[in-house]
Specification:
The protein is of the alpha/beta class. The protein is built from twelve helices and 14 strands. The chain binds NADPH dihydro-nicotinamide-adenine-dinucleotide phosphate.
Amino acid sequence: MSPTNSADMYTDPSLFPGVDVYAVVGNPIGHSKSPVIHQRFAEQAKQKIYYGRIRAELGGFTAAAKSFFAAGGKGLNVTVPFKLDAQEYAEVLTPRAQLAGAVNTLYIHNGKILGDNTDGAGLVRDLLAQGIHIQGARILLLGAGGAARGVIGPLLEQCPKQLMIANRSSAKAGDLVRLFEGLAKTHGVEMTSHSLITLEDQEKIRSPFELVINATAAGLSDESPLSAQAAHNIFSPSSFAYDMVYGKTTTFMQQALQRGARVSDGLGMLVEQAADAFLIWRGAELSQAIDPRLVLAELRS
Ligand code: NDP
């Protein structure tokens, strides 16, 4: 019997007696790299697990998660479009999941479903691994959706000098600034919000940014959130441009390259957030046994 029914992409833990079963839930889910990433961590740490996929119908997240845990599943990762459903489904939230307003990692803790969010920690670790100095930096964050919200807390904790959030709808960027203003103050960070159009105004931008993070979904449809003028204003050869979308050189990354900036896609963030989830599930003492940068290099080769 096949452990995963490819017709509906549902991983049934009861088909793996004696093995701890995990899965990633999303829609679509066929192309998720999470199974191969977690399987590699398990090999590195000599852990016997099975990690599969679950394609839930829209509106069907809770039913899928309930039956997964009822069948003995140990933990779930959650991706687009279910991170808010996962937050509602969780009985207890970690402080960072609460702050992020979204959950990407679920597991049972003290008999309750616990929801965590490892996306922001994953981004910060990938940036630091690439030698980016976040402390004291001027950062521009593009986007105000779930991914942007998830990374603001971990970025503020690194004490940048400034965090500007720019979004197509400036009202949503303003909401995020209000939500995080207390944390920004605690860490001495100047936080502002703008519309993407404002980035075309050189006087308002003052000077290019050291770090520009694209947390919009524009790259998925081969678009950039930046006009040519905005790209000219915000990038310089000393900028680092990070696109959360992975697997291609996006238009945003091309604009940065044209200005002489360094660029990265978001594959490292994906691997690092997975590493965090793996250690939450399997034990923090395995942190020396897994090598996320090696797994990243293997994925890129
Ligand atoms: P949401 O749907 O919650 O938010 C989408 C954001 O993108 C909004 O700010 C929206 O602006 C903006 N946007 C969408 N299209 C355009 C466009 N054409 N031009 C300008 N802005 C646009 O999505 P998420 O925040 O969950 O995800 C954002 C991206 O991050 C996705 O591509 C996702 O794949 C990626 N991601 C990568 C991760 C990784 O590990 N590498 C982890 C998490 C996410 P508006 O508010 O005005 O509509």
